[in-house]
Amino acid sequence: MPTPPLPLSGVHHVALITADYSRAKRFYLDVLGAEVLNESYRVERDSYKLDLRLPGGIQLELFSFPAPPARPSYPEACGWRHLALATADLDACVKLLEARGARPEPIRVDALTGSRFTFLSDPDGTPIELYEQK
């Protein structure tokens, strides 16, 4: 008898920890165009938590903690590799990001799907992929 599937409906949010809360907040608001849903400070943890909605409806939780460890490698560290954001117009995204001061890598083509994509990094070096959906 097959095991029933988990009753999941989608991704609720993605969470990131930043070493520089103000710098990361500015990046996600000004460069990626996120909207603030909620912001709180937890005294007992000396930690901010910023709930954001990225264009397209993706919810992102941005945390600050005192002295978080650095990411071991880019992007081949064990665990989550990167955040991939879908777009119907990669060229327009790259143009807007560059105008906002970001530096996306040169556009590449996925050898398996034929789709175009690029990467950029947030201020902590977190890899963010922009993937053009056909």
TrEMBL record:
SUPFAM superfamilies: Glyoxalase/Bleomycin resistance protein/Dihydroxybiphenyl dioxygenase (SSF54593). It comes from the Bacteria. One of its GO terms (molecular function) is metal ion binding. Keywords: Metal-binding. The keyword Cytoplasm does not apply. Pfam families: Glyoxalase (PF00903). Residues 10-133 form the VOC domain. PROSITE patterns: VOC (PS51819). This is VOC family protein.
